[in-house]
Amino acid sequence: MEELGIQILKSLVSGLLMGLVFALVALGLTVIFGVMDIVNFAHGEFLMVGMYTTLLISPLLGVDPVLTLPLAGLVGAVLGVLCYFGLIRFLLRGPMIAQLFGTFGLMIFLRNLALLFMGSEPRIVHQGWLVGKSIVIGPGVVLESTKLAVAVLSLLSFAVVWWLINRTKVGKALTATSLDAEGARYMGISTELMNALAWAVGGASVGVAGGLLVNFWPVDPGVGLLFTMIAFATVALGGFGSVRGALVAGILIGLIVNLPPVWDAILRSIDAVGLRGLDIHSFKYTMVYAIYFLIMVLRPQGLFGWKQ
Amino acid sequence: MEAVKNAFDFGDMPRNELGLAAVVLAFLLSFPLMPHSSFGMATMIQFLMFSLYGMGWNLIGGYGGQVDLGKAQYVGIGAYTTAVMMIRWDVPFWFSMPVGMALAVGWSFIIGYPLFRLKGHYFAIATIATSLVLKDLFEVWNFVGGARGLEIPLKGDFPNWLYLQFREDYYYYYVILGMFLIGFIYMNGFRHSRLGYQLRAIKDNEHVARSLGIDVHWSKIKAYAVATAYVAMVGSFHACYNFNIEPEDTMSLDLSVLIAMMAMLGGAGSMWGPIIGAAILVPMKNYLGSWLGGQAGFAGIDLALYGMIIMFIAAAQPRGVYGIVEAMRARRR
Amino acid sequence: MRKIALVAAIAMLAAMLVPAMAWAGPKEIKIGVIYPLTGPAAAAGRELRAGAELAADIANQVMPGINMDMAKNGGVKSLGGAKLTLIFKDHQGNPQLGADLAKKLILDDKVVGILGCYYSSVTKTVSAVCERYGVPMINGSSTSPTLTKRGFKWFWRTTPHDKWFTKDLFEFLVGLTKGKAKGVKAVPREEINTLAAACEKTEWGSNVAIEIKNFAKEYGFNLAANILYAAKSPDLSSEVQSLIAAKPGAMLFASYTSDALLMIKTLKSMKAKPKILWGQDAGFDKPEFVSLGDDIVGVLTRSVFLPSVVKMKPLSGQVNDLYVKKMGHDLDGASARAFTGLQTWVYVLEKAGSTEPKAIQAACNTISIPGNQLVVPWVGIKFSTKGDEIGQNVLGGGLIGQYQKQKDGKIGLEVVYPFDIATAPLVYPFQGY
Q1: Does B130 touch chain A (CB under 8 A)?
Q2: Range of the domain at B120
Q3: Which CATH code is given to the segment(s) A2-298?
Q4: ipTM value for the complex
Q5: Which of B129, B307, B316 sits opposite A289 (nearest CB)?
Q6: In CATH, what number is assigned to the domain containing residue C48?
Q7: CA distance A122 to chain B (A)
Q8: What DSSP line would sit under B217-278, residue for residue?
Q9: Is C17 within 8 Å of B158 when comparing Cβ atoms?
Q10: Model pLDDT for residues A226-263, shown as the tens digit of each residue
Q11: Best of C256, C258, C270 to disrupt the A interface by mutation (most A CBs within 10 Å)?
Q12: I need a labelling partner for C94 at 20 to 30 A (CA). Which of A7, A282, C80, C428 fits?
């Protein structure tokens, strides 16, 4: 029983950390959707670009990977703005199908460009303040330092975005655009500018996330998809466009994927012979999608969504 | 009777389109007689398969406006039904294919009922979710071979029409061409059918459609079932053509996305769209990839190019290549 | 616009209608080679290609410095000194594409036979095509046990498969408890009796998981956790938690490249302390994995060829020198097995004295290549023709290597099993994180 208690604690901790990681990756996606109703399928590729940026720039400048974060954010923001003016602006005229299709194209383009220049082999950051370190806080409860840093950054980013949207003039303009772009235009708010701003914020947040993640995760051209699928589920579960929803849904998903060790501990403590060897690890993402599906059926607009 | 008349009624198509269709048909029928490479033949078979997948996608995605990114689950159900029945009970293809279609349609009703409560992006992502859940279940389900997949044993005597086992590809070609023609003609009938009109009304404006007395939810589910039948049929064929199936290649997200891409590139919501899309992307995938990737050593450049084309078309004309054709025609008039 | 479309359509058609080249020279034997030259396994593809090319070069020329029969003939002697031509195709890891390419090689290029394909899933579809057309195929590097359980008449495999490798692991563990390992006293059984395994969940990994389960039962080990996980997963912390909670003496893995990296990093962050950490090749035998540096010192991986084999087998050294000249680095598991695969083709053709499929089939079923001809440390090559495994080489063998810090400070693999050919003392227990 004691083992079970410790395991629950461990799973809570690592679930919370991982949940905040998922939430941070999803943040940019939900900001962009909130302003202009577009799902960016290339979101994971922005993350990949952020990861490669830090991986390449840090040895070039000879500084610690953590110090290149502003640069990764900048690259993400520039990429976001470029994508907006080069592609998304044109897609907005079409129906949802064309928008999906266009960002699919962007995803394939970015991923294979990376393949062409970086090759398919995964790369890792070898040295840095965060690399290979972890903090022990209790009996077997360990915090991985990169995940901890990402979690802190995640909370910070959510606070900043929340403040930006709810407490500043720019934020009010963003909200106005998302509610009624035409009405906002009559009030002198440039839709173009607001949209570009959303892409800059979205790109920067995921760029920084990538720059930090690369301290722990290997990066290869296909890395985006791993996170994108979870990010989609996070955003949809929280409700498209809801910043608060993304945070809650991210943590929820983080906790779900850390359930299997608890299940194993339960099996061990009750010594259920019939159930032994019933491995639920291979279902951890199945559970995420199944729970997503169930919640969506009960609440079609997501947990905190207000747009249908 | 009405349905049959509808199916063969091509009266609303422009004359030059019909002429083009006749040329294409003549080409498709005579392709195996012309000198060709075996890779060209394999490419043609894939083109026909993806045209049919795309037609299925187009039914719900194009005519109905519901973006489905989970078509691979039905490919999987069709393929697995045929393979399991053939391996375990020695059931011929022509019997297991309708069973596979029926099972897939049954599953589409089960998930379609809750799915169609969702709209837009929520619907698209939920279809991904159901497809992934089903794939994960198949990967651990030992009855269907788990992640190791299933392999259909060779019967030995070629050609075997009952079990669809041939040595030469042109047999497969004519089988899938037959399916293609039936699918195309059925699609033409569907356009003129009651459900077809209802679906387009729903796509234009759901509220208006509802006020006209259309049961929106039920119409979508019915159309989804028809779309599923298309995809499952080709899935069954895929199992026999490939002799080997795994969850990874029959039910993956990549396949779902590829199906949607081809239909969207060609032009969602038109008869020709999925066929045009498959005619562009399948040869491109097979030829460009092996030229640039395999020989020249520029891995990735083919797909980067492909991404650029998709971005360009999506930005220039939301209705795909067929939309461009239509726009040009309108300008000439 | 319309004209462009028309021209494009015609060009496309022309490409598809190019008539098959029906000409084959009398002094040329075409072998189709299908490998993943691009895609996720492109790096392995380069090694495979170079290994096969080197074998063809040695067979086609007279090379006095190499103690190998095929280095003395300058072509296939029984076929009038005919030279081998390799036609490479790239399957990109896609089984469907692999099957299409096999048809292309058989029907358009009229190859005598096929070598390939690395990925078991692609080998499966390609061998099914060969079986249908009655074209011989030799497989040098796919390790799924099911491949030779299908009773195929046109498929032969030179490499040992995952069942053998997993058996090697258990033999190694048992040997360890009996004090057979070089430089280590007998380890008490309780110390390593509990095992925990994590395998990726596609075809390859789930097969390995089954083998581990069966052998653990047979050898009486307690398999406390047997986890399947998605290789394309953003997080492995829950898997690692369960592994650690099982308190195993040995942790066993079947991982691809990026998940192997993430697995080691996660194990380190969670302070895992197993006595033994073993990986089933693949991700555990890649340059990226070696780049983890000190974190992998003491990790075990199974393989069929390690650079340190060169120390004990002169022939391997001779071939390795040529390979280094060609590629700039040593032979590895992928290139050595590709080399052996093509070498087998040469010996089979030599024995058959004909390029007729039937003659090749008969030659494959009766051939016996002694171990002194091979680069890899096997007893030889002889294919089984009956029982539940048809076409499997019964004289192959696996190695277990350990990452150790070498004199020059680099991390390299040393042979630790089979015990009698160990090149370095075993580092035991694993350092732990």
Answers
A1: yes
A2: 2-252
A3: 1.10.3470
A4: 0.91
A5: B129
A6: 3.40.50.2300
A7: 15
A8: HHHHHHHHHHHHHHHHHHHHHHHHHHSEE-HHHHS-HHHHHHHHHHHHHH-TTSSSHHHHHH
A9: no
A10: 888 889 889 888 888 888 899 999 999 999 999 988 88
A11: C258
A12: A282
